[in-house]
Specification:
Layout (H helix, E strand, L loop, with lengths): L1 E5 L5 E5 L7 H14 L1 H15 L8 H19 L11 H28 L1 H4 L7 H18 L3 H7 L11 H23 L3 H13 L16 H8 L3 H9 L9 H33 L2
Antiparallel strand pairs: 1-2
Helix pairs in contact: 1-2, 2-6, 3-4, 4-6, 4-8, 4-9, 4-11, 8-11, 8-12, 11-12
Amino acid sequence: MSQSEIDRNGEVTCYSSASPLRDSKGLLRSVWQDFVDTRELIFTLFTRDLRAQFRQSILGYIWLLLPPVTTAAVWLFLQSQRILNVETDIPYPVFILVGTTVWTSFVNLVSAPLVGFNAGKSIYTKLNVAPEAFVMSAILRALLNFVIRLVILVPVFIVFKVVPPSTWYLFPVAVVSFFAIALAVGIWAIPFGSLFTDVGNFLTNFVKIFMYLAPVVYPVGKKTGLFKELMINNPLTPGIAWSRDVITTGSNEWAVPALLIGLISLLFVLAGLLFLRIARPHLVARLGM
C-alpha cells in the first residue's frame, strides 16, 4: 500500500509500506543522488570547517603533525635507552614515523563520520538537508589532514637517506585499502553512536588498543608466539605493513590480504550507507525530539 501527498511546489511524495530493500537499485540511486545534490553544501561545509579548525590557534596546522611526532619520539626514546630492542629493515625513525602517521589518520577517520553526523544535527533536524553532507565533509577534512601529515615524511626520508622504491605509486592504493576499514567502522557507528554517546567513547578508546597489536611502532617479527599470531591475524596489519613497504622497502608481501580486506571493507561502507539511508528518517525524528 502507498500514500501520496502534494507539497506547495506541486511535487508528489509517495509513501509506501514496502521495504526499501526490495528496490535495492533505487536505494543505491537515491544515496548517490543525495551526494550529487549536496555537493555544493559538502564543499561549503568542508571549507568552513577547514578555516575554523585552527582559527584561534597560534601553531595552526602544526597541531596536525604533533600526534605522530610525539608518539614517535616516545618510542624512539625507549629504543635509545635500550628499553626496547626493535630490529627493522629500514632506519627505525622512518619506520615509526610512517606507521604513526598512517595510524593517526586511521583513528581520525574512524570517528570522522559520527563527528560529522552529530555536528550537523541542529540543521538537518530542522531543514530538509541530507545528513550525509556533514558526514562527507568530516571525512574529506580527515583525508586532507592526512595529506598534510605526509609532509613530515619528506625531511625524514632525506635525513636518513631513504629513497622510495619503484613501488611508491602503490602508496595511495595501500592507504585507501587501509582507510576503507576505518570508514566502514565509522559509518556503521553512526546510527548507534548518534543515539548513544557510549558508542563514540567506546570506539575512540577501543581502536587505540589495536595499535599495539599491529606493526605501527614495531614489525611483526620473525619469532613465533601468541603475540605474533595476534599481529598476523589482526585485520589492520596488512594495510599498515603494505602502506609502509611500498614507500620504503618495495615489498608487496602484504598486498593481497590488504587488497582483499580493503575490498570487503568497501562493501561494508556501501552497506552502511544503505542502512543509514533507511534509518535516516527515524534518526532525524529521534534527534529532533
